[in-house]
Amino acid sequence: MEHILELYQKPYDPRRPLVCFDEKSVQLLAHITTPLILQPGQAIRQDYEYKRNGTRNLFLFVEPKAGSRQVLVTNRRTKRDFAQAMRYLVDIMYPEAECIDIVMDNLNTHSPASFYATFPPSEARRLTERLEIHHTPKHGSWLNIAECELSVLGRQCLARRIDDGQRLADEVAAWEADRN
Question: Please, are residues 22 and 60 in contact by the beta-carbon 8 Å criterion?
C-alpha cells in the first residue's frame, strides 16, 4: 500500500507520467415500453422490464496529476483487448514519455503476458520496457484513482439505460470532454 501512496506523492514529470488504469463492463439495455414523460417534482418513470442488447467494456486511463482521463470503449475484455489498450497508452497517449508508471489491479489479464500472447516478441518487449506496472495490493483496489473515476462515470453518465454501443461511446466521449 505504501508503494502506491509514494507514487502519488512524487512530483509531476511529463517524461514519466503516472497513469491509473481500470476497466468496467457495461450492459446495453433498451426500454421495452416508452418511459412516462417527466413531470415537475417527479423522477423518470420507467418499466422494470428491458431488452438486453449485449455488453461493452470501458478501459479508463486517468492521469491524476495532469487532471486528465480517457476512456476506450471496446466490444470485449480479453488479453488481446488489454494489450491493445496498453499499446494505445504507449504509442498514442504518451509517445514522448520515457517510461509510464501505471497503477492497476491484479486482474489475470493485467500483465506483460498479455502482450506476448497478442504481439510478436519484439513488440511485446518494447511495450514492457516502456511501462512500469504497479499493482494495487489484494483487497486494496480502492487505492487506484481510476476506480474512483469509474464510480464518477457510473453516477454521472451510466446511471440510466443505454441501448446501443455507438450511443454509449458518444455519451462517454461527451462525459470525458466535460470532465477534462
Answer: yes
